[in-house]
Amino acid sequence: MATIQLYYWPTITGRGEFIRLALEDAKYPYKDEARTKEGLDEMLSVINPTAESPFDIPPLSPPFVFIDDLPPLAHVAKILFVLGPRLGLAGNNSETERALINQLQLSVSDIVSEVHDSHHPIATSLYYEDQKVEAARRTHYLVNERLPKYLSYFERILAKKTANVLVGDTVTYVDLSIFHLLCGLKYAYPKAMARIEAYIPRLLELKRSVAERPNIKAYLASERRLAFNENDLFRHYSELDL
Amino acid sequence: MATIQLYYWPTITGRGEFIRLALEDAKYPYKDEARTKEGLDEMLSVINPTAESPFDIPPLSPPFVFIDDLPPLAHVAKILFVLGPRLGLAGNNSETERALINQLQLSVSDIVSEVHDSHHPIATSLYYEDQKVEAARRTHYLVNERLPKYLSYFERILAKKTANVLVGDTVTYVDLSIFHLLCGLKYAYPKAMARIEAYIPRLLELKRSVAERPNIKAYLASERRLAFNENDLFRHYSELDL
Questions:
Q1: Assembly ipTM
Q2: ∠ CA(A107), CA(B72), CA(B28), 5° rounding?
Q3: A214: Cβ contacts below 8 Å, ≥ 6 apart
Q4: Inter-chain contact A149–B49, Cβ cutoff 8 Å?
Q5: Is the predicted pLDDT of residue B54 greater than 90, yes or no?
């Protein structure tokens, strides 16, 4: 097992966390490269549009990873699709299960983008403070329409299952991602989630069971797991949590 | 070759067009199911959250497709990843090329979502007219920051190539998607694109070469190709094109 090199912003959980949780759960050897000064500089040079890239197809933005001899891979869902079988987190590894897990992961990516845009509805390049009015308006629809739509979709899938996992009979990487999504949403919107959680009992049970997995439990207690903060993807602003 | 069943909103090009272009280019037998009343009703029942779904993992939203014996597949990038080799549009079909094509397609999906949110920055459930002020503000950043970022990224990739295609030596589905993206952007933001096009000569050449492919040319001249309109993903509002 060649060590996997993960590149992601060093001070936030962000999109990198979905990759990190899968690697930690599998106890797969990996290095969080950008948590050192040199690694961070390297990451910045790889994504710098004005620098000459050593790669034919450079990643557009973090997270990206180096796996075996593959070129750098970007996009959370793509990375997890490729990593999944290597980590034993892609169900029975059939084309069908791999496709379905990936498909659900893409919906997780979609929610994550909507969560991001709720505190940045106008531009990523502006501060939250410069788009607070629009953020409040957008977040209203996020918590009242979008989160219920997505979360009840996942809940309905669990309702058809015997094993309380989204695809197949065992925990896959998308279950780990759902765990992190629910943690992030609870952090960002505690009041709204208290309402929503009333009708997603199976997802909450899945969240609890993932938190109890020994490798995840050890990871969450370690200093490798960063605390949520207001530079992160999931942000708590009391004025947005109604 | 079993006929592929495609389900997508019948009156817009939208996200379905990325799938349609690949199928048309390959002359693969497919049926645009939701263009009949029965098919549309069927699509609506499949994505209806309150209806009992016949699928363990139903699609969350269109487009979705039925390919061979696979369960319904959703998400443009996922559908194209699975269809690509069947259509001869996935380069040399190696794990590496398939991963890279898919990765670039995911960036296309990201731009497409940003384009959508530029006319709907607050909520998909509201009319454009109810979020015009925010749309104008967001679109400013879209055309001045986001489109240049994404399009110059693709341009830089072409700059390293001998063949003017994004991955490998032959046209793949992501090249077809880039064609549609550039058509849509030109329709929506003719003034802004006139500025941007000055520094994406290779992408424009790729767009021209895709338009000349015989099956694409025939498709574009057919009535199967819908005209852009203001219910679509790419919308032209003169007040947003500055």
A1: 0.96
A2: 115
A3: none
A4: yes
A5: no
Nearest to B121 among A71, A124, A138 (CB): A138
Look-up: residue for tokens 């490998």? B168
Asked if residue A236 has pLDDT above 80, the reply is yes
Residue B122 pLDDT level (bands cut at 50, 70, 90): very high
Tell me: pLDDT of A170 over 80.
yes
Is there a contact between B57 and A107 if contact means CB atoms under 8 Å apart?
Answer: no
Task: Give residue B121's identity as a one-letter amino acid code.
Answer: P
Domains of chain B: 4-87 (3.40.30.10), 95-212 (1.20.1050.10)
Percent of chain B with pLDDT over 70: 100
Residues 49-108 of B with CB under 8 A from A: 49, 53, 56-58, 60, 70-71, 73-75, 77-78, 82, 95-96, 99-100, 102-104, 106-107
- Structure tokens given for A2: 């060649």
What's the token pair of residue B43? 């699509």
Say whether residue B138 is in contact with chain A using an 8 A CB cutoff. yes
Cα B110-B114-B119 angle, rounded to 5 deg:
155
In this complex, the residue of B56, B122, B160 whose CB is nearest that of residue A134 is B122
